[in-house]
TrEMBL record, chain A:
Gene3D superfamilies, A to Z: Potassium Channel Kv1.1, Chain A (3.30.710.10)
Pfam family, one: Skp1_POZ
Domain of life of the source: Eukaryota
Protein known as: S-phase kinase-associated protein 1
Keywords from the named record: Ubl conjugation pathway
Pathway: Protein modification; protein ubiquitination
TrEMBL record, chain B:
Domain F-box: 24-49
Highest taxon, organism lineage: Eukaryota
Name of the featured protein: F-box domain-containing protein
Gene3D superfamilies listed in its UniProt record: Ribonuclease Inhibitor
């Protein structure tokens, strides 16, 4: 079985099958680039991912392992199509997988899924973000996601006016 | 974190906050409802922008008069400082406003290219409108034209001269330079909703010719109102349409909706025989010959047809054969029949019809004619594929009332896969029967009390229904059905006139945990019951129409309709109100005052 070494930002190396790795859009391109540039076709590719630390990379690979037999979704699928898939993809395993994580870890996982182009993982993590938005106040959202209001002058008032317009009309 | 920093692609920002990457925000916002999206606009500028993009699909701007334009200007004057996208996708202009008006142009000007739908009144017919559409509303997808029909040049501040000479002078000035966009390539829907007024043929013709020359990619053509005085107009429209078609224009027409093709059969023939790739047609069948055209069409092109709506004139001769029983309508998924009473023999092989709507129709005959055998034990393709059945009969004769009951008793047996049922004029025991009989039922719309109890008693079997009485007794029937626990997927219910509203809810509806959408009409409900309903059920939509809610608090809301008018026939509780009540995943609450 062809293997590939994936190395995290803090130097931990994971040895995974190429079949599994190719389910990530990013890793797939990396492996293909490696193939083209290297003379020895038997050489084991080594991919360094400088933005993801070991703990997160392990989670991503774990998720890929679990979902290795799912059909691959095209990365540039439009929103309408993605809708059904995102809902269907939320399995019990996914819920158990995400349940113990705090929001910080989930955020890093989103970044990793985005960077590595793993659509399914991105969908379920974003769904978790969505659930943190529903039914919360603006301040609660800002605190949860560590965001600061960057409105200047009367811009916030402007938004308020427009929102009122929406509700009334 | 400053989002300008974050936007810069940096390899070092390992702990970057992902919630400020537009792509991630977009995915996260995909399933949010409109209340949450409005809230997200306050969080920060980037969220504001992304939420605005999503909201675009949900917000329609109504501009009715000068006051609303002033208000619009006040609200949106500095809109682009915060977000560069317009907050709305559609604009509706009231009958007093004119698209070519300078003030309106200034107001809408900077948003024009972002607007996808436009509803205008017929005063559009000034010589300038054409260039305005082409130059400003470049991304327009849908254009709807409402109002009285005269298409004469309007009198506005700038355009005082109303005679044809002036417009002839103006036209060539603007046309030669602007070669790049001669038409509206994205415009796919054109809808006429006109009311009767004497029309001047020359203007109509010019207007329509110009209009059709703008729409090379038209896919949907609608003519909504039925009005014999507009026959000439309709004829002109068909003339222009066919002329354009000769030039290779508008060959993509997929949907043709014209519930009242009053002008005659020639036009019907034109539409059906010109080889449009039609997927959906809605036409009127008034004479035998028009039925023949339709039959011919179904035989030659029926394979691509997905939706068929036929309106039969009450005087249609007997025994029209609309299509031979061997016609293959393999993609037809939806049939609607209106006033279908006398004709026999409709279509044969219908392997995938999922939705059937019957309006003012002899139900038994209609079902017979589409191949459903009333007594037969074996199931046809229709029996297997049919998922929704809608029956709208605005009155129920004694015969039809009995017929409905007869059908209800057999529905479960004949259509085992029905998921959505709407039957008007059902009595309570029929409702009970429906609820008990279907395991897959998801939605039931059964406005009860369409006929009064007196009428009900007069034509039902006296022995069997003798003790059916107003209120409690009849409710008991339905309540007992609500105990049924086999309906796991039941999500939507619409009931009417449920007598003792509170009891009906606390004993019946409240135990249906799977309900997501509930509509109650003509009922008296106490505030406590309403709150209980909201807390115990995970409703996404509750609509109370013509209901009295017994509480100071709600009545206080109802007394202030200005803040909450949502559309013509319902009141919408304001955003603040919904937040205050903490309705959770609630999407919309409509309360209508009697």
């Amino acid at each position: 079985m062809a293997l590939v070494r994936v190395i995290s930002s803090d130097g931990a190396a994971f040895l995974v099958s190429q079949r599994l790795a190719k389910r990530s859009g990013k890793l797939k391109t990396e492996i293909e680039t490696f193939r083209k540039s290297s003379d020895n076709s038997e050489a084991q590719p080594e991919i360094r991912i400088v933005t993801i630390r070991a703990e997160i990379l392990r989670l991503v690979l774990q998720w890929l392992q679990q979902h290795q037999n799912d059909p691959v979704l095209p990365a540039n699928q439009n929103e309408q199509d993605g809708r059904g898939d995102a809902e269907m993809g939320q399995s019990q395993w996914d819920r158990d997988f995400l349940a113990p994580m705090d929001l910080g870890i989930v955020m890093e996982l989103i970044l990793a899924a985005n960077h590595l182009e793993v659509k399914g993982l991105l969908d379920i993590t974003c769904k978790l973000v969505e659930s943190k938005i529903t039914g919360r106040t603006v301040d609660e959202i800002r605190t949860a996601f560590k965001l600061k209001s960057d409105f200047k002058g009367n811009e916030e008032e402007q938004t308020r006016l427009e929102n009122r317009w929406c509700v009334e009309n | 974190m400053n989002f300008f920093q974050a936007k810069r692609p940096s390899r070092k920002t390992i702990r970057m906050n992902p919630i400020i990457i537009p792509r991630i925000i977009q995915i996260s916002f995909q399933h949010l409802n409109y209340i949450d999206l409005l809230k997200c606009r306050y969080v920060c500028k980037l969220w504001n922008e992304e939420a605005t993009k999503r909201l675009q699909d949900l917000v329609i701007v109504h501009l009715n008069d000068w006051h609303s334009i002033e208000k619009f200007n006040r609200v949106f004057s500095s809109h682009d400082k915060v977000s560069k996208f317009p907050l709305f996708k559609a604009v509706r202009l009231g009958k007093n406003l004119n698209l070519v008006d300078t003030n309106l142009q200034i107001s809408l000007g900077k948003f024009a290219s972002g607007i996808k739908e436009l509803v205008v009144n017929t005063k559009i017919g000034s010589p300038e409108w054409r260039f305005l559409l082409v130059e400003q509303f470049v991304n327009l997808n849908e254009l709807r034209i409402y109002g009285p029909a005269p298409f004469q040049p309007i009198i506005s501040g700038r355009d005082v001269s109303t005679d044809g000479k002036m417009s002839k002078l103006k036209t060539p000035v603007a046309s030669p330079g602007s070669k790049k966009s001669q038409n509206l390539p994205n415009l796919t829907l054109l809808s006429f909703n006109l009311t009767n007024k004497k029309t001047e043929d020359i203007f109509v013709r010019r207007f329509l010719r110009d209009l059709f020359s703008l729409t090379p990619n038209l896919e949907v053509l609608e003519w909504i109102k039925e009005d014999p005085f507009l026959n000439d107009f309709q004829k002109t429209m068909f003339d222009c349409l066919m002329n354009k078609t000769k030039d290779g224009f508008m060959t993509k027409l997929k949907v043709f909706r014209c519930p009242s093709l009053t002008c005659g059969t020639k036009e019907l023939k034109d539409i059906l025989t010109k080889g449009f790739p039609l997927k959906e047609i809605e036409v009127q069948i008034s004479q035998e010959v028009s039925a023949h055209y339709l039959e011919h069409f179904l035989e030659s092109q029926g394979k691509t047809l997905e939706l068929l709506k036929l309106n039969f004139c009450p005087g249609t001769p007997l025994n029209i054969m609309v299509a031979s029983p061997y016609t293959n309508l393999v993609h037809l998924t939806e049939i609607t029949l209106t006033e279908y009473r006398r004709s026999i023999g409709f279509v044969g092989y219908l392997p995938c019809v999922r939705k059937l709507t019957l309006i003012r129709t002899n139900i038994k005959r209609a079902l017979l004619s589409i191949g459903w055998s009333f007594d037969s034990q074996d199931q046809t393709e229709l029996s297997k594929s049919l998922e929704s059945l809608y029956i709208y009969n605005d009155y129920l004769s004694r015969e039809q009332g009995n017929c409905t009951r007869e059908i209800v008793l057999k529905l479960a047996h004949c259509f085992p896969n029905l998921r959505i049922i709407r039957l008007e004029g059902l009595d309570d025991s029929s409702v009970r029967h429906l609820l008990k009989g279907f395991n897959n039922l998801q939605e039931l719309y059964a406005p009860m009390g369409t006929y009064s109890d007196e009428a009900f008693r007069s034509y039902t079997d006296k022995d069997q229904y003798a003790n059916v009485n107003v209120g409690l007794a009849s409710n008991r029937y339905v309540l007992s059905a609500f105990d049924a626990t086999h309906l796991k997927n039941f999500t939507a219910l619409e009931v009417e006139s449920i007598g003792l509203g509170d009891k009906f809810i606390t004993h019946g509806i409240i135990h249906w945990k799977s309900l997501r959408s509930l509509t109650i009409k003509y009922a008296r409900i106490s505030f406590q019951t309403l709150t209980r309903l909201l807390f115990e059920l995970d409703l996404h939509r509750l609509r109370l129409q013509y209901c009295t809610v017994l509480t100071d608090r709600v009545l206080e809301v109802l007394d202030d309709p200005v803040e909450m008018i949502h559309d013509d026939d319902s009141l919408d509780l304001s955003h603040d109100m919904i937040q205050k009540w903490r309705f959770g995943s609630f999407r919309m609450l409509f309360v209508q005052v009697p």
